[in-house]
Write a sequence for this structure.
């Protein structure tokens, strides 16, 4: 994934810092609560939401079971419609393909439609290394790019910023990237949007190459689908001569009838809209209409490995709606950057470690970045049982990860005790006898300190339940 | 009808008053309850932390301890959910029939016994935090609230943001202490804003986390398990007082 995320500290360390940032906490609480309430209303409008959700899950599962077939079908259809299909096994390969295509056109810049796949592979940085500038045109991505920042949310990458911060970023950075911010720019949403519009317009009109992702790829006709709110994506998809779309292989759906289900599930789950304002669909190239040169880069980058995992593969159903982020109490407090990946929140915690592996410190910490409260599973429009996958990944970390030796020993010891009731009873009695000596805080490092830094330890009772039950039995016996 | 109490390891060791309250409550309602002493822990901490192999002996032990009982009642939504949702994933033939016989306390009262008014008396202002596993995995719905509303003298006040997790999460509380504490702080702030005297819940592990946070702040609010409120009556004795 993006090189800029490399070397991130493990989640608990990053979150220990971000939870102290009062401004960030306030921005995130406000934004996530607003959208989560709206989503709940938009979903409640549909009497058949549960059936739609089930259908979405089943369509994705069915497609994933025969992914090879649908991908080849899509490739044939795109090719027949005048497009060119490239296959990229890893991030570097995809970046290489895109850079070569841009250079072959003799271009030094591209405009970009908001895309998670290109964030995942760090395309902007790879292009920059080849002397090609990628301009983000989604408003929130623009804010992130101008602020030399990292995205912290799937749908609203600048969710961690408030209006005042955005105004400051525009004033300070727009001139370095093109048209400067208007004089006397305030933080009114209308003025900020107008400033972005003016800044971006010259790029839309100038660009010869656009890069996008896609929300869906319809196999039967080879049609690509991008849903968005602003219309900036539509500009990129129609004005330039060349369009390059980088699309994860799990984005394929077999037919237009299948697509219909997702066009209901996605907008209500992500922006809480009945229908998103812009749905762009294109099939190869059309003479005299839109780009005359179209390239589809099909990206694996860890997806095939994920598909091989019977429990973990459900993460590939994800349609990137962000509903799980918006209800997640951990995301709300830690913020997106703590997840060390463009995929933050609950879906990030199960997707990133599967796509990248569990070797880095941050990736091995992600499966634990959840209380398993289940709020994510409840809202997920394709019913991904995120807690189940988190526990599954914890098993892999505990099995293969380093640094879990002490934990394993402690768990084994506790399990032995719990499996030997006589020893267990003795241990409970010993704990009860020493209860007056037990402190409410513990100064020594380790789990007990992590607990007692902010919480008193519970006081041991004089008598365990099982001992009470025994005495009671004796009292009752005549 | 043979009824067993699954008290859970947390209640056995740290909150025996909750177990005693369940016994008192069920006996008052005419249910004879057993405590099979072979029981210890359902294995949830092992399972949720990623130690499946270590879960197995405890799941076997739990299944064997409760074999032959028609109903297994537990004052913990979380442990009930562990047995309901996760035991089937363990592939243990001997544990197959257990999930269908395990009832979280409020489920047992409302669905099996068909009571919401258990004849309790509790003259306090109470707010209720529905723990996540009871709420989302078991789907307890408003059963706890219906039981609380029927308690004489009890003034129930709504907890803002009630459905949001308290931040306990088992080993999460010590693996991610900063986020866990931030979640507890928000939950406690919401609970204090209600002006209630008692923060009630149906899972003592969450109450241990919230109660520990409240005590550290010397806050004027105590945590009490739902079973203890339902067990309290006008005739509560010195030995089993109004909590
Ligand atoms: S996991 Fe589900 S809720 Fe989360 S972004 Fe993906 S589809 Fe949406």
């Amino acid at each position: 994934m993006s090189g800029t995320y490399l070397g991130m500290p493990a989640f608990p360390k990053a979150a220990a810092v971000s939870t102290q940032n009062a401004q960030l906490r306030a921005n995130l609480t406000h934004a996530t609560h607003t959208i989560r309430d709206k989503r709940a209303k938009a979903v409640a409008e549909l009497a058949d939401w549960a059936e739609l959700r089930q259908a979405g899950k089943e369509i994705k599962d069915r497609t994933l079971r025969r992914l090879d077939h649908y991908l080849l079908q899509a490739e044939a259809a795109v090719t027949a419609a005048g497009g060119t299909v490239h296959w990229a096994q890893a991030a570097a390969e995809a970046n290489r393909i895109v850079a070569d295509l841009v250079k072959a056109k003799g271009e030094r810049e591209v405009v970009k439609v908001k895309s998670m796949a290109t964030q995942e592979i760090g395309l902007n940085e790879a292009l920059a290394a080849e002397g090609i500038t990628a301009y983000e045109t989604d408003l929130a991505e623009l804010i992130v790019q101008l602020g030399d920042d990292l995205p912290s949310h799937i749908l609203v990458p600048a969710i961690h910023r408030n209006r005042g911060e955005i105004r400051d970023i525009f004033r300070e950075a727009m001139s370095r990237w093109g048209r400067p911010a208007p004089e006397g720019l305030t933080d009114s949403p209308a003025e900020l949007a107008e400033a972005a519009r003016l800044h971006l317009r010259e790029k839309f009109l100038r660009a010869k190459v656009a890069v996008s992702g896609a929300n869906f790829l319809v196999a039967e006709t080879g049609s690509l689908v991008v849903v968005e709110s602003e219309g900036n994506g539509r500009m990129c998809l129609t004005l330039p001569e060349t369009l390059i779309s980088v699309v994860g292989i799990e984005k394929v759906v077999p037919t237009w009838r299948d697509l219909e289900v997702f066009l209901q599930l996605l907008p209500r789950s992500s922006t809480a809209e009945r229908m998103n304002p812009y749905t762009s669909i294109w099939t190869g190239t059309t003479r005299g209409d839109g780009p005359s040169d179209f390239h589809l880069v099909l990206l694996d980058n860890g997806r095939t490995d994920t598909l091989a995992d019977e429990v973990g593969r459900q993460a590939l159903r994800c349609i990137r709606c962000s509903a799980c982020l918006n209800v997640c109490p951990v995301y709300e407090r830690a913020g997106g950057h703590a997840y060390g990946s463009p995929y933050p929140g609950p879906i990030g915690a199960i997707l990133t470690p599967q796509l990248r592996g569990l070797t880095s410190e941050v990736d091995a910490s992600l499966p634990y970045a959840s209380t398993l409260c289940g709020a994510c599973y409840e809202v997920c429009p394709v019913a991904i049982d995120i807690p189940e996958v988190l526990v599954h990944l914890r098993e892999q970390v505990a099995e293969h990860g380093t640094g879990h030796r002490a934990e394993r020993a402690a768990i084994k010891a506790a399990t032995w005790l719990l499996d030997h009731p006589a020893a267990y009873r003795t241990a409970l009695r010993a704990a009860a006898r020493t209860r007056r000596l037990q402190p409410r805080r513990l100064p020594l490092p380790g789990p007990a300190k992590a607990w007692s830094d902010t919480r008193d330890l519970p006081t041991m009772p004089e008598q365990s339940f099982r001992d009470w039950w025994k005495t009671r039995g004796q009292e009752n016996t005549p | 009808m043979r009824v067993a109490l699954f008290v859970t390891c947390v209640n056995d060791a740290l909150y025996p008053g909750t177990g005693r309250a369940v016994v008192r409550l069920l006996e008052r309602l005419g249910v004879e309850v057993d405590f099979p002493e072979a029981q210890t822990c359902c294995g949830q901490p092992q399972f949720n932390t990623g130690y499946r192999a270590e879960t197995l002996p405890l799941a076997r032990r739990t299944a064997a301890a409760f074999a032959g009982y028609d109903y297994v009642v537990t004052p913990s939504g979380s442990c009930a959910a562990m047995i309901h949702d996760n035991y089937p994933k363990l592939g243990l033939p001997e544990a197959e029939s257990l999930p269908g016989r395990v009832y979280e306390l409020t489920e047992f009262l409302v669905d099996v016994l068909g009571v919401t008014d258990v004849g309790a008396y509790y003259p306090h202002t109470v707010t209720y935090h529905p723990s996540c596993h009871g709420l989302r995995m078991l789907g307890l719905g408003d059963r706890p609230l219906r039981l609380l509303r029927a308690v004489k003298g009890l003034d129930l006040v709504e907890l803002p943001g009630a459905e949001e997790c308290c931040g306990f999460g088992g080993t999460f509380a010590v693996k991610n202490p900063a986020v866990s504490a931030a979640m507890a702080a928000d939950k406690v702030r919401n609970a204090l804003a209600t002006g209630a005297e008692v923060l009630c819940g149906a899972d003592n592990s969450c109450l241990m986390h919230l109660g520990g946070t409240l005590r550290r702040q010397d806050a004027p609010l105590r945590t009490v398990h739902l079973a203890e409120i339902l067990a309290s009556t006008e005739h509560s004795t010195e030995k089993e007082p109004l909590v």
In short: Chain B has two domains: 3-112, 125-231. DSSP finds twelve helices and eight strands in chain B. The first strand of chain B starts at residue 3 and ends at 5. The mean pLDDT of chain B is 96.
